[in-house]
Specification:
Radius of gyration: 20 Å
Order of helices and strands: EHEEHHHEHEHEEEHEEEHEHEHEHHH
Oligomer: single chain
Helix content: 25-40%
Shape: globular
Largest sheet: 7 strands, parallel
CATH topology of the largest domain: Rossmann fold
CATH architecture of the largest domain: 3-Layer(aba) Sandwich
Strand content: 15-25%
Length: 381
């Protein structure tokens, strides 16, 4: 039995990825008899307490701006779709834009994690893409495990000029400096990939986990009469998403569910609109999943055997995920500037009318489910 402190990456941006995986991991570890706590920020993604002991973590402010400015300007930019015009070429840029490698944030968040470790006394600090968690573990001499992904490696894409805040923290604490912030992801003792080799072909030694979580039990042959739409944050504005999808798919014989955190709940014909839906329930009943190419969305779609139409925008990781799905015949991709009714209708029809897309999605989903998931971490503690 081990004591594990899990630290998800924090952000003001709306994204369920890191915190969702952290909670799934915590549940898996607890079910195996381990003692788990979270060190988690009270950001926009953490809107309700978990069932685990929680220690506070500072919330980063985009670009390291003063908090009162970042708290107001960034959400407005997201809502209006302004952030969709920003091309993000590496995970290092993501960390910079979200404020996760700003010197002041790194200093405060590393101290928060050290304080949490002092109280909880973990055997392992688990970094869910958290840079300060890796730094804190190195400072304290505590074993560190981490979630990693192929496109977040420094050898895939990086921006070393953004590493000055990280190197300042490292130098102040007599730790070796790095060329790129992303080099820190090579430090954890064990690195876990919530994917499969077909989608993320690592050369280095990593532990593939496949789907982090298993799909909800479904009928053996569910009626697939739904289309799901979720575009995440910073890609397509919610207003544009609803307008385009309604015009493109309103006359199809499917119930269309459109989710976006700043949307009001309503129904218009076959269109169901809300801030969120229970995707675990809806995906097994879906014929098509239109999404932004986020890691969780891709995996959730595949394990439920749903082919996808992906609009990854200008974010490097989403573009990588989308290209992998398309190359393996489980969906199609489109550019943001083509997010218009005619294109959506044509590409959706192509997927819906060709059974090979669903077949390939099912094949990849089966492979994802053949690995141990989050419980794989427990087996290596």
């Amino acid at each position: 039995m081990s004591r594990v402190l899990i630290v998800p990456m924090a952000a003001m941006a709306q994204t369920a990825g890191s915190l969702g995986r952290a909670i799934t991991l915590a549940q898996a570890l607890e079910s195996k008899g381990h003692i788990v706590s979270l060190c988690v920020a009270s950001d926009v993604n953490h809107d309700r307490p978990t069932s685990f002991k929680e220690y506070p973590l500072e919330t980063p402010v985009p670009l390291g701006l003063p908090a009162f400015i970042g708290m107001h300007t960034f959400p407005i930019a997201q809502k209006l779709g302004i952030t969709a015009n920003k091309e993000v070429k590496s995970f290092e840029e993501v960390l910079h834009l979200t404020g996760n490698i700003d010197y002041r944030y790194l200093k405060e968040s590393t101290e928060d994690i050290c304080d949490a470790a002092s109280g909880f006394k973990p055997d392992v600090i688990y970094s869910e893409f958290s840079i300060p968690a890796i730094i804190a573990a190195a400072l304290l001499g505590i074993r560190c495990f981490a979630t990693v992904s192929y496109p977040t490696r420094s050898s895939f894409a990086s921006e070393p000029s953004l590493a000055h805040g990280v190197n300042r923290i490292l130098k102040e604490n007599d730790l070796p400096e790095v060329v790129s912030t992303l080099d820190l992801f090579s430090l954890p003792e064990k690195k876990f990939v919530p994917s499969i080799p077909e989608l993320e072909p690592w050369e280095e030694e990593v532990v593939y986990c496949g789907a982090w979580r298993k799909p909800a039990p479904a009928a053996s042959s569910p009626i697939r009469d739904k289309i799901l739409v979720y575009m995440g944050s910073g890609n397509i504005s919610s207003l544009a998403m609803v307008r385009v999808i309604k015009e493109a798919l309103a006359d199809l014989p499917y119930d269309v569910f459109i989710a976006g955190k700043d949307l009001r709940e309503m129904q218009d014909g076959n269109m169901h609109i809300a801030p969120s839906f229970d995707f675990a329930k809806l995906l097994p009943e879906s014929r098509l999943f239109i999404n932004h190419g986020g890691q969780n969305s891709i995996v959730d779609g595949l394990i439920n055997r749903v082919p996808m139409l992906i609009c990854p925008g200008k974010v490097f990781e989403r573009k990588y995920n989308a290209s992998g799905v398309a190359k393996l015949g489980a969906g199609l991709t489109m550019d943001t500037d083509k997010f218009e009714p005619k294109t959506i209708r044509n590409l959706s029809s192509c997927i819906l009318e060709d059974p090979s897309y669903a077949s390939n999605a099912a094949s990849l989903g089966k492979k994802l489910l053949s690995y141990g998931g989050a419980a794989e971490v427990a087996s290596l503690l």
